[in-house]
Design a protein that fits this description.
It is built from ten helices and ten strands. It is an alpha/beta fold. The structure holds NADP nicotinamide-adenine-dinucleotide phosphate (NAP).
Length: about 325
């Protein structure tokens, strides 16, 4: 495992992080028991994945609760990142959300507390002021944001220093590159989420794939009929590169994202021990120049051909 500093902070985070949305039985089709989820988290830690990313909204607290179980006896080994519940725009609401998270997580501090989504109705500065209060109170080590655009990030940083911005970033979602560059220049860490494009880049799916009701992929843009052929063309390149190196397409897609400039860590969702083992070993080896050229071209071709959406889940 490789480790990077999270922006200007003192935190050293693994280049591959554990996405904990998968531990809510909300987003994936594979239902898992709490014991299975805890086993995946412990395996991740054994493999050097020290950054875990959860949120109150993942299963309405279910993810944080099971993460809390997995943390028992291991709290000091994990860089714990969670988020503030939606619509918490006032400092007291941010504090209330944090207190609920601390209770579910069974800990007395959060390493990185992120505003999950910016508000477009209320000034985000008040929520950031709430984070600042929590840092001063010792409940949070670093204030952070997620899905903030350039202007929102700059405004937030004027109120209080933010350690990172969590943004979507995959070979087939490169819209945030100018923002990532901007964050890097400000020494704000970047946590890249959904590097597999919700699984499309793993090569497991084709146009005949269907998902049960409730599966996030029913409204994920890469699986829409007008987008999927473009995404599958990029996936074919990922598969070819994977074959050349004797690794899986998921490992190539994660490696590519982790090697882009200013990326502190890549947050991958793993639904099984096998997946977490593959994903943890997606870094620590290098793609060559020709691979990078082919992958970049595949991403650019996708971006030029596929319709653009506001988020990965635009309906
Ligand atoms: N800040 C935000 O707004 C935001 C938004 C989205 C996500 N996130 C964070 O980012 C994390 C990851 O995002 P994501 O789950 O949306 O996308 P992702 O990591 O691109 O895709 C994860 C899915 O890909 C499949 N997968 C993973 N590893 C695999 C492997 N080695 N081989 C084959 N298939 C594999 C699994 O599907 P199956 O489960 O079907 O097996 C898994 O659920 C989340 O858990 C969350 O922590 C944050």
């Amino acid at each position: 495992m490789r480790y990077n500093k999270l922006g200007w902070s003192n935190l050293l985070v693994s280049a591959v992080a554990l996405g904990c949305a998968q531990f809510s039985n909300q987003f994936t089709k594979t239902r898992k028991s709490a014991a299975d989820m805890v086993a995946i988290m412990h395996r991740a830690l054994d493999l050097g994945i020290n950054l875990w990313d959860t949120a109150p909204s993942y299963g309405n607290g279910a993810s944080e609760s099971v993460v809390g179980r997995a943390l028992q006896g291991r709290r000091d080994k994990v860089v714990l990142a969670t988020k503030v519940r939606s619509h918490a725009t006032m400092p007291e609401m941010v504090e209330g959300s944090c207190n609920e998270s601390l209770q579910r997580l069974g800990t007395d501090y959060i390493d990185v507390l992120q505003i999950h989504w910016p508000s477009y109705d209320e000034p985000n500065e008040l929520a950031i002021a709430g984070l600042a209060r929590l840092v001063k109170a010792g409940k949070v080590r670093y204030a952070a944001v997620s899905n903030f655009n350039r202007e929102q990030t700059d405004l937030a940083a004027c109120v209080y220093p933010v350690a990172s911005n969590q943004l979507p970033y995959a070979l087939v979602w490169r819209y945030e590159e100018p923002l990532i560059q901007h964050c890097g220049a400000q020494h704000i860490g970047v946590l890249a989420y959904s590097p597999l494009g919700e699984g499309i880049l793993t090569g497991r799916y084709d146009e005949s794939s269907t998902f049960p009701p409730g599966d996030v992929r029913n409204h994920c843009v890469f699986f829409r009929p007008e987008v999927m052929p473009h995404a599958l063309r990029a996936t074919a390149v990922v598969k070819r590169v994977a074959q050349k190196h004797g690794v899986t397409p998921a490992q190539v897609a994660i490696n590519w994202t982790a090697r882009q400039p200013h990326i502190s860590s890549v947050i991958v969702g793993s639904s099984s021990l096998q997946q977490v083992e593959q994903n943890a070993t997606a870094v620590g080896w290098e793609l060559d120049e020709e691979d990078h050229r082919q992958l970049a071209a595949a991403g650019e071709q996708y971006m030029a051909a596929a319709p653009r959406f506001r988020t990965m889940w635009d309906r």
